[in-house]
Amino acid sequence: GATSGQVCKTYVPTCKELEALATSALAEGAKCSADADCGFKVSNTLGCGCPTFVNLKTMGPAKPLFVFMIQLVNSYKAQKCTSDVACSCPNPNSAVCVAGKCVPKG
User: Taking the model in full, what pTM does it have?
Assistant: First the structure.
């Protein structure tokens, strides 16, 4: 096919857009059917969040969710975004599946 000389630009989401993407990805990632599904620890926000657990089998946009989250965190840091979230919270060791959602315990 012919091109009209347009340059493909990489879209860089804003800090707020990155936060919204992470929130929806984590909501999807927390879905589970058994305690064993909740085995991968991630931060619950991009800035300075509390640890939470997601299902490794859950897919983000065209890739495993945990890979997508790492990319979001890297973009967030690269743009020097900051979050209003306080950084003091418990550090759970594991999670259980309660009503179809991973819930940290411990």
Answer: 0.73
Question: Burial level of 65, CB count in 10 A (0-12/13-18/19+)?
Answer: buried
Taking the alpha carbons at both ends of the chain, their separation in whole angstroms is 58
Q: Which residues contact 38 (CB under 8 A, 6 or more apart)?
A: 30, 32, 53, 54, 55, 94, 95, 96, 97, 102, 103
Beta strands in 1-106 (DSSP E): 40-43, 51-54, 59-60, 63-64, 94-98, 101-105
- Taking the C-alpha atoms of residue 97 and residue 99, their distance in angstroms, rounded to an integer, is 7
99 vs 86, residue with greater confidence: 99
Q: Which residue has the tokens 């991973």?
A: 102
Give the pair of three-digit tokens for residue 78.
């690269």
* Residue 55: count of CB within 10 angstroms of its CB: 25
